[in-house]
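Example for tutorial group B:
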C-alpha cells in the first residue's frame, strides 16, 4: 500500500519508516480503496494513491476525506483513475466532541479523460496530449 500520508511534519516522529509528509498539497491518481477493520470492529477506508514516480502512498479516511471521496462526485464516489489533489487547510476545532481539533482538508478530483487515443501510436495523438495536461492548472 505504501507509506501513510501525514498532514504535518510533526506527525512524522511516530513511525517515520511507515509515514510520509508530502507537504501541504499533493496530487496523485486514485488507484483503489482498501479497507481495514480496527480492534473495535469499525471499518476504515484507506485510499491507495499512485504518485508520478509510480510509487504508492496511503491516505487514511477521516470524516472530511471520506465524505469528499465517497460522495463528492455528485453524490457518488470519486472513480478510480481520477487525479486527486489533497490540500491540508490546517487544524479546525470540532463543534461537537468537546471541540477536539481535526485536520481540515480540501479534496479535489479530475475524472479520467473519456477522449479516445490512438492505440499503438509511436507518438501521442493530439487528443492524448491534451488529455495529459494538468487539469488543476487550466
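The residue assignment follows.
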Amino acid at each position: 500500500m505504501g507509506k501513510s500520508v501525514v498532514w504535518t511534519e510533526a506527525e512524522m516522529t511516530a513511525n517515520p519508516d511507515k509515514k510520509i509528509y508530502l507537504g501541504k498539497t499533493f496530487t496523485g491518481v486514485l488507484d483503489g480503496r482498501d479497507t481495514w477493520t480496527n480492534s473495535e470492529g469499525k471499518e476504515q477506508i484507506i485510499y491507495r494513491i499512485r504518485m508520478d514516480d509510480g510509487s504508492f502512498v496511503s491516505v487514511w479516511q477521516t470524516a472530511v476525506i471520506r465524505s469528499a471521496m465517497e460522495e463528492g462526485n455528485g453524490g457518488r464516489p470519486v472513480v478510480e483513475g481520477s487525479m486527486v489533489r489533497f490540500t491540508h487547510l490546517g487544524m479546525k476545532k470540532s463543534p461537537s466532541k468537546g471541540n477536539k481539533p481535526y485536520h481540515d482538508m480540501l479534496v479535489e478530483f479530475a475524472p479520467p479523460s473519456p477522449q479516445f487515443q490512438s492505440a499503438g501510436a509511436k507518438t501521442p495523438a493530439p487528443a492524448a496530449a491534451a488529455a495529459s495536461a494538468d487539469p488543476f492548472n487550466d
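The mean pLDDT is 86. Compare this with the pattern of hydrophobic and polar residues in the output above.
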